[in-house]
User: Fold these one by one.
Assistant:
Number 1:
Amino acid sequence: MQDNAGGCGVDHITVERFAKDSQNRLLAIKEQLRKGSYQPNPIKRVWIDKLGSREKRPLGIPTVSDRIVQTSLKMVIEPIFEKEFVEHSYGFRPGRGCKDALRRVGRMLKAGNLFVVDVDIKGYFDNIAHELLMEQICKHIADERILGLIEAFLKQGVIEETNWQEAKDEGTPQGGVISPLLANIYLTQLDKLLPSEAMIWCATRTTSS
């Protein structure tokens, strides 16, 4: 995921500008969340180079306010789903990284596993079905305010240059703070079907586009 922490969203408010009046802005966000009236802004879409390819991939840039709310939301729900994630999953998880996955691969190779399967799910973030994702989330979260906020972020529209696009029934924008966690939740059922002692590719998977 490309770092867009300093960029501005569709409201043109940068992190620096937000910080100049952060106390009032944060209080306003807090009040909207308390009332259940918070509405995410549309996502600003830009296209960036795809590593190792001539193709480009879309990057969604939320507003600073939306990033703050998504970060808070992630802090609340991530510990719930961390208990559900499998041991051989490493992508976008706290306290885990590529080196941990490589160490696991090394141990498995020494144990006699001789084959490595490299799998890339094409357009993964763009094709996450909202209904199926929410079904997984609802199994572990009952708070209607939390569920409503997650759905609101999934239904954000997109602005690309001056063109407005309504949200579809699938996809979670790359660049969003909570997107990697939602992507992991969606793929967990597949992870659980794969035997951890045999599937090296599962140990190294990341939810890439």
Number 2:
Amino acid sequence: MMKKEMIAMLLAGGQGSRLGVLTEKVAKPAVAFGGKYRIIDFPLSNCINSGIDTVGVLTQYQPLRLNTHIGIGIPWDLDRNEGGVTVLPPYEKSENSEWYTGTANAIYQNMEYMQEYHPDYVLILSGDHIYKMDYEVMLDFHKANKADVTIACMPVPMEEAGRFGIMVADESGRITEFQEKPEHPSSNLASMGIYIFSWKALKEALIALKDQNSCDFGKHVLPYCKEKGRRLFAYEYNGYWKDVGTLGSYWEANMELIDIIPEFNLYEEFWRIYTKGDIIPPQYISADAVIGRCLIGEGAEIYGEVHNSVIGPNVVVGRGSVVRDSIIMRNTSVGENTVIDRAIVAEDVCIGSNTVIGFGEEVPNVKKPSVYAFGLAVIGEHSVIPDDVKIGRNTAVTGVTVPADYPDGVLPGGQNIEAKEGDAL
């Protein structure tokens, strides 16, 4: 088998429960982002742009869409005979079937896959962040310091440091201690969950910790390496990086893409973001349509008004309808004279006519106040919203709903509807 200097292991098994109904049927890395992309396109594109051509994608929760999206990796030029992209679901061992229990356990279960490439270094990534990063520069830093483990860190405001795993490093960058969500942090370097391990150090730690219940990098592997006197270094990263882990941060990161000069540019020639492109017709904008500050996907048909929104491929917005400050994902149709204000609408949704999504005051959500917040109305995929209903803010609707689900035609703010699945349209 051929030797690879560095291979990447991309952890894409997360459910992302703070994204609520958006991740009910799909793993977080497969959630659409910025119109035509999916979240996992960003770390995968970073790999290609950094010259890494061997990527193992570890899936677990609802992997179907991820598998179809990645396929054999053609969009990322990862359809290689040697290496390329490989989807690695947990597989049943003869004695007991084992799900991945923790990030490090997932990597441990794929030891054979890594071994095939005799890597000098293994890059560990998570599949749910939006950023551009040249992993080669990080590898150079790792080599220059003769490090066993290099952890990408990002300076965060001191007052926010308590929310992160914090690395305390000396002036040479060598890590002297870790603080997990500290009350009184002694540094503002937050771990980004991106690690480069020298193969020997990784292998030794994983084997030593293989019986550790739900083995994680931050909690178990890094402390183990440090205890054993390994050289751990913090690599400081100062570019754009967004954890799109909550509906609010997901909505914000999408909205930032439509700034006149976006902080995160999807269209840089030298750092392309690759995705699986379907061959679909161009957008159609009718003569009466009004559009301002939007991203509009291919195949979309706009007959109404769209302002300040991200519209995915094949979305239809009917006559007289107004969409504002919203994200509407692919294959969704919006009827006529409907108003959508500050909403996130997932894929394959059918929204009736004369309907309002997002109105009134903000009240906390009754079931999950921390998830359904930010004043957003969220509609799960394959849902149907009938004609003539109104949906308030901090709400979630999923399934095929009928007028009877809306007493007096209204779903008040802070309420949820979970209807049954109908036959998909």
Number 3:
Amino acid sequence: MSDKRLNNQLTLAFPTEDMGEALRAVEGSVESLAANRPVESPGMGEQLMEAVCEWSNIQQAVRRVKRNHGSAGVDGMTVHHLPAYLKQHWPTLRAHLLAGTYVPSPVKPVEIPKSEGGRRRLGIPTVVDRCLQQAVLQVLQGDWDRTFSAHSYGFRPGRSAHQAVEQAQRYLADGYYWVVDLDLEKFFDRVGHDKLMARLAQRISDKRVLKLIRAFLRAGVLANGVVSPRRAGTPQGGPLSPLLSNIVLDELDREVAQRGLRFVRYADDCQIYVRSRRAGLRVLASLTRFLARRLKLHVNQQKSAVGLGATRRFLGFSFTASREPKRRIAPAALRRCKRRIRGVTRRTRGVSIGRMARDLTRYLRGWHGYFGRCQTPSVLHRLEEWVRRRLRSVIWTQWKRGRGRFAALRKRGVGLALAARTAGSSHGPWRLAQSLALKIALPKVSFDSLGMPRLTVRR
């Protein structure tokens, strides 16, 4: 990559961890220690940028960026080209960082579908900027993370969505049946830069690092050859955005903890647990005012609500209404899963059953890695049966006509009369997928041989 390209990048100014075990909740008074902790820890030193630029820190950042893959930014550079690029240009980049003159490139706008409908806007930085954001994150995270709330679980080392769901489950089991579900409207687009930078300046004394973070926040969006400025928000798509969002919402955590309320927060998903609907409505109203006044954030009135725990969902899970509530897969999450499986196993897709099974296995392993922790195995059993029925109907279609179907059934051990009756049936593939003949010809073990995971067996 040429020095001219590097200079253009430097002068272009525009002012989804491993799942850990669930942590045990503190008994009695919720988060009394967190509520009484010092507001801020001592400021970070004047030589913070030197720590960011340590070659070992940069190498670690490169490994993380490569592991996360991700698409190229506006300059077209991929993660595979990053090591060679840094090897050649790192001395110049380091000099600009230490002098406080580095200017990030604009981000590339990308929209992805949201699970509940609609579109989510992302801003994809160049891989060089992603590497530098990761390097800053690695230096800042340890100092900030130890002061965050014990009930904040999103984007934090050693914490996971499963831990957040299990904590919510414990609150329901303790009798806090009413849930205040807070949904922040376009949170990542509305974070105020000045307020965030003031919060950072309380702990960071190295003005070069503060200037770099502000530059990342204000990096323009390049679309159709035009760079548009960004005056608010922490653009999703960069490694630094999750930490900055936790820094903003830590003020909400402190407020809820000081009120003695039981709560769980994962990124901008926050639920508070109380004993009555009246208390829930009071908490929702007061926190809505707090967020608007102190953080300049708006609560989505259509999605925020107070309801019984069994009627609300959290991070893809819901809970049974029993005295000892159990985790179950939320109906919306199950519908999304089935919609994805239908797309992969479409009979008119025109791929081999081996290719279809590989695509399906890749999706199901990831899905089961998250939702396999539900406590309602009957749901997983029914889903597993449904997937096999989908595949049997595909295979039946690929066997084409009666003579070929008869031969395939006989080859797989189906009796003469049953094979003839099934091959000559006028019923469609979906109905015949449940027939005795196809269950004999295509038993569970035949799908095991294709690499299909068993959803009801933990591996």
